[in-house]
Amino acid sequence: MPFIIAIDGPAASGKGTIARALASHFGFHHLDTGLLYRATGAKGGDPIVSARDLTPDDLQRPDLRSAAAGQAASRVAAIPEVREALREFQLRFASQEPGAVLDGRDIGTVICPDAQVKLYVIASDEVRAARRAAELGSDVADMLNELQQRDRRDSQRAAAPLRPATDAIVIDTTDLAIEQAIATAIAAVQSAR
Ligand code: C5P
Q1: Complex confidence, ipTM
Q2: How would you classify the pairing of strands 169-172 and 3-8?
Q3: Which residues does the UniProt record annotate as the domain Cytidylate kinase (predicted)?
Q4: What is the number of structural domains in the chain?
């Protein structure tokens, strides 16, 4: 049976960095599930049809990391049929040997509730906004606004809202250097293996 690491948390909490590091450390496959929602939103048209017809090329669009693509993603992500259309791809990805790391909002709660390790990565709003603004070269106050609006939508929606699984290990990266956050995550996985 493949080993599954589920990582959830709000935008720019550090979950993507931790997910990539764990995948490389343990030799596992990695899927940034936010990309599926970003690509669906960016494709335009009927979001349910776009999610069903998503192709690998759609995941390569150059504009998917922008704040606008994040907002579009969070709007289509509230539609249950969109989530259902993207579910199967995620399940297939998670079944790969020797293991997989998936990061998103509902991996530990909905997509892979039986994952061997569940992490919930958080950081203060200010730190998350500063990190993402530096990454995208944008204004910190605008970014804070954008992240808070998106987190609110993601946590308050009826379909698979953002929340920690009851058995998730919480990692707060507010005051952690990247290396410390990664070391904490590796230790959590090692103790579950
Ligand atoms: O993680 P990222 O910021 O790329 O995600 C973009 C948006 O996609 C999120 O704000 C959220 O609305 C949605 N998403 C989701 N479930 C996931 C991953 C992302 O609803 N598993």
Answers
A1: 0.99
A2: unpaired
A3: 5-40, 63-190
A4: 1
CATH assignment at residue 104? 3.40.50.300
Is the Cβ atom of 74 under 6 angstroms away from ligand 1? yes
CB 192 within 8 Å of CB 22:
no
Instruction: Output the CA 33–ligand 1 centroid distance in Å.
Output: 7
Q: Write out pLDDT tens, residues 144-162.
A: 999 999 999 999 999 999 9
pTM: 0.97
pLDDT at 1: 83
Q: Rounded to the nearest 10 degrees, how much is the dihedral formed by the CA atoms of 56, 107, 50, 150?
A: -120
Q: Is 34 in the pocket of ligand 1 (CB under 6 A)?
A: yes
Per the listing, tokens 């009826």 go with 158
How far apart CA 36 and CA 55 sit, in angstroms, is: 10
Q: How far apart are CA 37 and CA 50, in angstroms?
A: 10
Q: Which pLDDT does position 51 carry in this prediction?
A: 98
What string of DSSP letters covers 116-155?
Answer: SEEEEEE--HHHHHHHHHHHHT--HHHHHHHHHHHHHHHH
Mean local confidence (pLDDT), 109-134: 98
